[in-house]
Amino acid sequence: MSSVKRWFVTTNHKDIGILYTITALFFLVLGGVLAMLMRVQLWSPGAGVLSAGAYNQAVSAHGLLMVFWFISPFAFGFANYLVPLQIGADDLAFPRLNAMSYWAYLFSGLLFIASFFQGGTFDGGWTMYAPLNLPTYMPNIGGTTVVLALIMFIAAVTMGSVNFLTTMYRMRAEGLRMRDLPMFSMSILLTVWMMLFAFAALLAALMILAAEHLFGVTYFSAEGGTLLWTHLFWFFGHPEVYIVFFPALGIMAECFQTFTGQRIVGRKWFVLAMVLVALQSFVVWMHHMFLTGINLEIKTLFMVTTIGISLPFDLMVFSLIYTMIKGRIRFTTPFLFSLGALILFIIGGITGVFLGAVVLDYEFRGTYWVVAHFHYVMVGGATGLFAGVYYWFPKMTGRMYDETLGKLHFALYFVGFNLLYFPLFVAWETPRRVFDYAPGLTSWHQVASIGGFVLGASFLVMFYNLFKSMAVGEEVGDNPWEYSTTAEWAVSSPPPLENFPGKPSYASGELSFRDEPELTADGSGDGKPVVSVSPRSDGGVASGASETSSGPRSDGGSVRTEGATAGGGTGLVGGTGTATPAAAGTATTHGEERHADHASFWPFVVCFAGFLTFLGVSGIRSGGVYPGLTAVGAVLSAVGFVGFANESFYVPEPTVAEQWPFGGVENMKLGMWTFLASDVVLFGGFVGSYLFLRVANGWMHWHHAFIPEAHVTFPGLVNTYLLLASSFAVVLSLVAAHRNSSRGVVASLTVTWLLGVGFLINKGMEWQHLFHISTEAFPNGWAVGTNVASSTFYLTTGLHGAHVIVGLVMLLYMIPRAWRGAYLDDDSSLEYFGLYWHFVDIVWLFLFPLFYIL
Amino acid sequence: MSRFKLYTGIFVVLMALSTTQALVERTGLVDFDAPGTYWTAFGVILALSFVKATFVATYYMHLRWEPRSVTYLFLGGLFVALALTTAAAYSIL
């Protein structure tokens, strides 16, 4: 396979991790150039190099690109590469889905870039506040494209979240308990949990916004609409702060452990504090809304929760500081970046407490105080991620970076960053998002601009260092760090395709590899450990010896090195070279060995098709090439999905693995349930928006003012009957499969399909009727954009209808397969489809009363 | 086949409860000019929806036979959605 082609077809987690990392760095440069333009503009108050519109676009695009297309994907480059290694898995649970997640991310970013060439990109700020985000104020096609790009990005995020959750719960090495996950993996686990729910809420907001642009629904221009946007956005946006920061925190914890030779002090409490923050992150969003019309009681409540969330962070900060005090520090580049991240985050955190207090927020809102605080937190997180670049560079490339250049990068970075952002606290009276400011603040802004360029230049050092080191850096063994303890350091650098020499196990308390093939026909995996290496399951003890020999460190500072360092810094994981050749990832099926697949072209095809489709849809109302693009994209999507579904792609599920608390729930089923949990939040966002707008417009008034007489209960009741009957038909297909009746399965699925089609026909007839009613109150019918009630009705039931259509397409694929006798031996596909279909049914059970009766 | 009987019984219950919801509407309890009766009907009708959803999730989606953690996963999503909706709506009351 040619080296270029390999990158288009790979599904291996390490390759995809590298693709994520490089792509994220590309978006860092793009967002950084936009930031440079802003700082040039701000050299003096008033007009400069950019027009007012161009400045708005630069501000918005910089924010969106950095928050969405740089920071999180950058962290997920590491997550992809390292989490399977750290937990002892061969790959993620769904490798093709992982590849699809990457390509969707890349193409969503390209969609964003395309928006610059469509008469201007999104210019309403990264928070995309209503009503500025509406087509009235943003008529450019580019504005719509950015909304669609974000939707595609969230598709990527959701695929990634489902994949990581399934992997981490179902594919951990034997003996690796959840509580013992290495710190980085633990941080990713909590991050993907937050992602799963937070991004679903943003998806709801963006789908509604896209519908405003494409179909003319009226949510955000209605009474209470602007407030609705802020609720939906910040319900996502606040957890996003921790989604961005947690991976950095995980890397910092790893680096602190490795470079102080000291286990994180109070590790258990550190992890508990992270869990608490992850939960609390969902109940603080309204502190972004203190200056809106929300009531005082709830402002007070959210002030309390916001101040409260700083407490677990205090614990983490003190734990890191105490780890340094107890350990012996090695000031390597990764450590310097970790320490820098801690310092920046402390400043960012303290200045954030000001904003969390209602009274102070009244003063600071909309000023550069917020800008400075926000960048101290977010770039503080990015600083931790750059620690990760240097920390894992030897693992990913097999070569060491140049330490002097690394330290130079840190020095320029840290000085540049503080020169850039600290003056903004002083110049806090600068209004946010506009380039004009009081002339008295000029010198502070000039210092900041100089800092900005120093910060930018520091990355030239980094890129030079990494490129040079990749070619001529000193070759390292498995582990260049003296006290690293996690499992990725126990394999060669870079790790082999199948990750481990044998099946990893922590059953003995430390990492060992079994030489038994992972999967045998009977699923047994009782091979004996063949080689024992030192990483502990919790990635915590900096010792090359076993747990019993590590002993307490009462001297408060020294670290155990016996048996670990004699080899000149590779002692911890020495010995892996003698391990038995890799046997993982194979299975014996009917006497033939079956290998795990690692390549598929279809994820790329599907996502490229998605790119064309979204680009076409963005301008479909303005004609030109756009309808054609949409059509080509749609056809290619269909080809891609069929190709994807028909491709034989074998991924073994580990039979010897820790699976608490989802033992007995196979990977695919857990993936489906996880996806449905996020879909609950998506529908929750839609239904919640309807309820919110109805409350804002007067619950009873809504019915009197906005609903026509012709909107009656009966069509909804008929559809309820149809869907319930279709659900019954799906469970009958399972019964038929149990009875080994192929005809029964075909008949049940066909009945399901017919009932689903009947549902759509009934809905279509009802909609046609409502569109064309002609009454005194609604002389032009009750169309999508007639009023807020019609908008919420058509869009929410429309989203549900789209789910039904997706289910019907799945059935069109399944029925012919059932005809050929599929599903009798293994009815799991029927069950997974049923989960989806019943869920769509459940949603309707609530839409029916809310939109038809009440 | 005991599951067949179970599934059928649940289907009958689900259809009956849906019909009940529509019947509650027919009785005139859903009166937008009389908040007292309206909110009673509101409670009854939504409670019936929750009962139906529980039946579908428990038996048709087999939660009854899965580890409890799967139910918690699903309820987690529901809790998040409800928290957003209720807190947002309360903020403007």
From TrEMBL, chain A:
Chain ranges passing through the membrane: 16-38, 58-82, 102-121, 141-165, 186-211, 231-249, 269-288, 300-323, 335-360, 372-393, 405-428, 448-467, 601-620, 626-649, 670-693, 713-737, 744-761, 793-815, 835-853
Q: How does it sit in the membrane?
A: Multi-pass membrane protein
Q: What is this protein called?
A: Cbb3-type cytochrome c oxidase subunit I
The segment annotated Disordered runs over 516-591
Which cellular component terms (GO) are annotated to the entry?
membrane
The UniProt keywords, alphabetically, are: Electron transport, Heme, Iron, Membrane, Metal-binding, Respiratory chain, Transmembrane, Transmembrane helix, Transport
Keyword Heme attached: yes
Q: Which GO terms describe its biological process?
A: aerobic respiration; electron transport coupled proton transport; respiratory electron transport chain
Automatic annotation (TrEMBL), chain B:
- A GO cellular component annotation in the UniProt record: plasma membrane
Transmembrane residues, as ranges? 38-60, 72-92
What is the scientific name of the source organism?
Halosimplex rubrum
Query: Which compartments is it annotated to reside in?
Result: Cell membrane
What name does this protein carry? Cytochrome C oxidase subunit IV family protein
Q: Does the keyword Transmembrane apply?
A: yes
Top-rank taxon, per record: Archaea
Is this entry keyworded Transmembrane? yes
Q: Which InterPro entries match?
A: Cyt_c_oxidase_su4_prok
Q: Which UniProt keywords apply?
A: Cell membrane, Membrane, Transmembrane, Transmembrane helix
Q: How does this protein sit in the membrane?
A: Multi-pass membrane protein
